[in-house]
Design brief:
The two termini are 15 Å apart. Helices cover 42% and strands 31% of the residues. Helix 1 packs antiparallel against helix 3. The protein is of the alpha+beta class.
Length: 104
């Protein structure tokens, strides 16, 4: 069963540009590690400290394999280190979603 990982970030709104750089870095890293990146989304209007990422996988097992590859990826490790140093991510939550399909 396909799944989509929705990552909800609480970010420092004064470091929006740093988060945007972090998100742009993932645009190449995530597909290279096996994720189908739907996209990263920055706050535009209204709440100014919530950002989202949506990444799909054919199965939960595929997600687990992706996470294992991500942990050994040099570019991924560098991007995680950038976020830790700059401290623009205040918290993050992961929710796993399944698609609603038409009845058969």
């Amino acid at each position: 069963m396909p799944i989509t990982c929705c990552i909800r970030y609480t970010i420092d709104p004064y470091q929006r540009d740093a988060f945007a750089e972090y998100a742009r870095n993932w645009l190449a890293i995530i597909p290279a590690c096996g994720g189908d990146l739907i996209g990263y989304f920055l706050p535009h209007e209204g709440t100014n400290n919530i950002a989202l990422a949506l990444i799909s996988f054919p199965s939960l097992a595929a997600y687990e394999a992706y996470r294992a590859r991500l942990k050994t990826d040099e570019a991924g490790a560098a991007n995680f280190a950038f976020a830790r140093r700059a401290r623009f991510i205040l918290s993050e939550e992961r929710t796993f979603l399944e698609p609603v399909l038409a009845s058969q």
